[in-house]
Structures are given as C-alpha cells and as structure tokens.
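Here is one such tokenized protein:
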Amino acid sequence: MKKLFAALCLALSVVGASAQNYFGYTNTDYERNGGVRFGTSTAQGQAIRLSGEKLDMMRGKQITGIHTAFGTRNLDALTFFVTTDLNGTPAVSEDMKGASTSWRDFSFSTPYTIGDESELYIGYTLSCSTSYNPLQFDKGQGLPGTSYRYNGTAWTDAYNDGYGNASMQVIVADVEPFTDVIAKPISANGYFLAEQPYVYSGQVFNFGTETINSFDITFRMGDGEEQVYSYSDLNLASNQAFDFSLPEYTSTVSGNLAITVGVRNINGAEDSETSDNSATSYLYIYPADMERNLLLEGFTGQSCPNCPNGHVSINSALAAFDAAPVVECFHHSGYALDEFSMTEDVTYLNFFPNPESTSAPNFMVNRLQNGLSPVGGGSGFTTGEVLTMLETAAAIQPYVSVGIESHYDEATRKLTGTMKVYTHVMPDAELTTFSIFLVQDSVIGYQIGASNAAAYAHRYAFRGSLTGALGGVYRLEEGQTVEYDFEYDLPEIITSEYAIDMGGDGVVGIVPEIDKMYLLAFVSKYQDVDQFADLDFNDLPVYNATMAKFGENTQVVNIEEDFVENNSAVLRVDGNNVRVNGDFDRIEVYDMSGRLVETLGAPAYTFTLSNGFYVARIVSGNHVKTQKLAVY
C-alpha cells in the first residue's frame, strides 16, 4: 500500500505541474560585461511591452515571473512590476534580491492573471551606483515599441538607442501552443545611390511557442514590385531569430523610400498572430548623379623628416581606394610651423588628443577621429590605416550636396562666388558650419627628408580660410537649398607669419599661381557652445565636400525640382482632420512604429487621424516624397 500511495502522489504531482513559457523579444545573447546605463541618475529601469494582439494568445493565463540578466550584481532596491501604464500604479510590484549577470528566474509570490488589458508592461526598476552599468540588451536587431528603459526621470522606447532588445522575458504558465513570427524593420543605415545594386538584410523573430520550419519573406521598396523569397528547413525554435540577406536589389528612383518587409505562409499556414508580420522602415536613396567627396586633411611640415613617408602612405591608399572620390588639403602644423603655415592651421591641431605634442605626419578623414599617434622613425601611419579611415567615412551618408560657383577677374585679382548646399536628409542638428578653404597644389619648396630636399612638390597646401577657422553657421532645412556668397582679393604673394628661412634664400613668401589655386568647400556639424574651450573636437564630422579651381564650378545635385513639378501634393493638418492639397495617386500614412494606419487614393482629399506623430508617403507617378505629420 505504501508503494502504491507513493506512486499515486508522484503521478498527481506531475499532472498538476504548470508548463512555464518564456516570451520576449531578445535572442538571449548578451555580454556579461556589456551592461549599459542611461543618464546620470542612480535610478534605472527596463521593461518590455506585450501588445493586445500578443495578450490575446495568453488571456486567462498567469504571469508567474520574469526571466532576466543584469549588467552587474551591485545594485539595490530591485523592484519587479506588471502594469498597464509605465507612468501609472502597477498591478503587481514586488521587491526581490539576487540580481545576477547570468540569466535567472524571478518569481512573483502572487501570479498576475492576464485579463482584457489592451497592453501590459513587465519589467523592473533599481538603484545602482553610477560606477556600474546595470541594464542588459542583446545588441541585436531592435523592434520599436517593445523594449523600454528608465533613466531616473522618464521611460523611453529603447529602439533608437541602438542596443537591440531588452534582455528580459516574461514567464507565463500553461499557454496553448501558437505560431507567431515577427518581421523586424530592415535597418539600412549608410549611403545608397539610385541605379546601384545593394544587398538588404533583415531579421525575423519567433515569438510563439512552436518551432518554425518554413516561411516566405516579402520585400518591397517604394513603388517597386513585391519580391517573394521562400525559406525552408529552418528549425527556428521559440525565442530565436533568423537573419536573412536578400539578392541584390536596384532602385531606379531617389528619395525617402519605404522599405516593407513581411513574413507569411508560416509552416505552410497563416500565422496565429499577424499584426507584426510586416514592418516598414525608410531609407533615403540619393540621386544617381550625386556628387559626394570625402575630405582628407593631412598634417605635415617642411622640417618634419618623416612627413615624406606619410605622404607616400596617403598616396598609396588613395590609389587603392575607389569607393568614393577624395579631396585633399594639407595643413603645415603639428611638427613645426613653416612658410606654408597659416593662422588657422594651429586651430586644427585640436582634432588630436594632445594639440601641444608632435602630431605630424598625420591625417584625418571627414574629421571622424582625433588622429593617430605618430610613430618615431617611421611614416607615423600605414597605407592600411588610411584605407580603413576612408572606408569608414565612405559608409556614412553625406546628408547634403555641396556645390560651388566662382568667377575670378585676373585684372582686379578679385574672386567672387557662391557656395550652395542642398539638404537631402537632415543630420542630427539643424545648424551646420559652411567652410571655404583656399588650397594651392604642387608648390615647389624645401622639404627635409625628401630625396630632393630643395625642390619638393607640396600637394594641396592650405592657404587660408574665407570663413574663419571653423566656418560660418547656417541652418539647414530638408529639401531646401542654402546659398552663401563670398568674395576674396587674391594677394600677389601669400606670406606666412610663421615663415623662417628654410633654404637659405630668405623669407620670400609663396606666389599663388592661378592655375594651381582651388576652392575647397565643405559642410560640417556645428556645436552651440559658449567658449572655444568647450568644443568637443571628437564630434565635428564633415558631411560632404567639393573642390574646384578658381573660376570653375561644381554641381549641386538635388531632387527638389522633381518633387515640385511632379508631386505637388501637400498635407494640411487641422485638429484631427487632414486635407490634401494638390495632385497625387496614393497616400500611405504610417505611425512611428512603422504600422500602416491610413491609405488614401485619388480623388479622396480628406481623412482623419488620432493624436500622435506620423509619416505620410505621397506617390505621384514614379515620384515619391514623404511628409511628417503632428496631430494634436
């Protein structure tokens, strides 16, 4: 009887055990020492959101806990919660201990039963010394509206932070099996041209309980035809991500184009939860004839014995680099000032970690770095290091087109002209700096360390700035052209205030030969600071540049004319009502998560939207433009 009773109890305990299901958006990858924090407050927090569609698969089931990992064990006041509003009173709030840098379960003493909520947030808040980074993310492809973080003041969608998904899963008991595959927005950052083929990559995520063996991926860019690609033999388990790369695709049009990726035919059937089976993101495709130049600034000196070797490394790199045109300018500073050195050259040494130390030979590309530490007895840098910086800069979009028109009167030696800047995509600040440099090529002069020290050709030497050391400040507006007019009286001799007699012929200055004189124009980031000492030279990147000889022009490429002539429709917001003024074929309106919320076809000209922010995609013939909408 004792054996029979024991067996019966064992059977009952097995039958009565709850099956625990883990739901989240993370692929569970994390770096044990890769934690992050937001802001300077000791209070930090993290949460994930379950939408109403996700909760529909779990109604009546119980949330029994949270599965998570932390960036440190050194934290206090750890409180886990379940709430319908991150700024409201939580339905469940429980203090716990045992934070770990490994994944572990934290169980609620009283489970929370999922009812008819339209959404739920599950997460934690904590207190942690600012010496530690307590929050963990998987560094994978993120998903808007799913992972949130707290900086001690406010909760914010973590999608735009670039850390991926919160390292957190909610534990729910006894959920019925279901399929649910999420299509994540394609993340395509960088520089893309019309009429050029590119490979686009994306990710789908298995949120459901069932293993996924097959599905179809759909892809559409702008008004292009939908492409369909089938995948099978996947064996994609719950909480796993599948990365895919599509065949090369070429866009024949430019502009801010919608990229819609979808997943369907899940295991040969419709997905159990279809609300996030497609996702839309936007990618700016630059015109095919876009002029984009990288700016390479070298640092050199006539008395620098290693500088000729540095010039060789730069020339070798430029000969091997074909991803983008490069314009050059060499500053005679960083070793010793000489007859080429101009007043502004000293300012540019601040792009190096220690401007007082020897910083030549050296270089920077689009001002993306503080420079490389020169190596005594060598060139200071290798051809490979120059190529690496060129490739890094070439992958970043230029945001603007830059053109220059100039006229030089030989009789009066007066140079007049206009710098034109068209904004394709707004950079991270509306204010920028416009700079115009004078550059003289192939000036024959003294150079120590050269095979012919008395007759060395100094390439693209900086001869001064028409806009001050750091340029003039201008406000950009997307889709608009800003012009800057300039004039300059060219002296017969340019003499450096730092010049000394290097070759034994005295200080005679440098004659600006007209056929070797160039204008170098570029646009860079502006920082609004009160004092020069407050400038962060790590964060003054150059967006785009152009160079032309005196009296010659370069082109400003824009697509504004196409938009004005072929797509004149403009949306006007009045309360929650939106009216279309102008002609169009189709209008699509997306919310900030990329969800399509409204489609309008001619001849309809009005529609309504709920309060919030939107992006409207206006199609007319082969032309597409986007307009941001704020509805209050």
User: Anything to note?
Assistant: The chain has a mean pLDDT of 87. The chain has five helices and 39 strands. The first helix runs from residue 2 to 16. The helical segments are 2-16, 52-55, 307-320, 383-394, 560-566.
